[in-house]
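Q: My hope is that you can spare some time for a protein that puzzles me. Underneath my words sits a plain record pairing an amino acid chain with its backbone structure tokens. Those tokens are not coordinates but codes from a learned vocabulary of shapes. Thank you; the sequence and its tokens follow:
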Amino acid sequence: MKKLICLIFLTFSPFIIFSQQWNIINIPNVSKVMDVYFINPNTGWLAAQLNSNTLVIYQTNDKAVTWNQKNNGHEGFDVNYCKMDFVNENTGYIIAVGTYGKQ
């Protein structure tokens, strides 16, 4: 019996020790989160498609507690793929593949 309890503890202990609390964030009018990139624990960017098929970029500097929209977006751009990469807090690259116009 002791071996069984020990085995169960060893099996599940990594999940208990390393588990993190997840918080749900609400960004109005977002239909799809396309990519998220953090350069450090505080600063990150989020690429999202709004309900109006507009690709927008948000930035956080407080560990994702608040998000600030950084661009006006490109309305009518239906995103199929999006990837971001940042060199530092001021320089980043984004590639988005999709279609323009209503379908």
The CA atoms of residues 41 and 90 lie 16 Å apart. The mean pLDDT is 80. Helices lie at 2-17. The chain has one helix and seven strands.
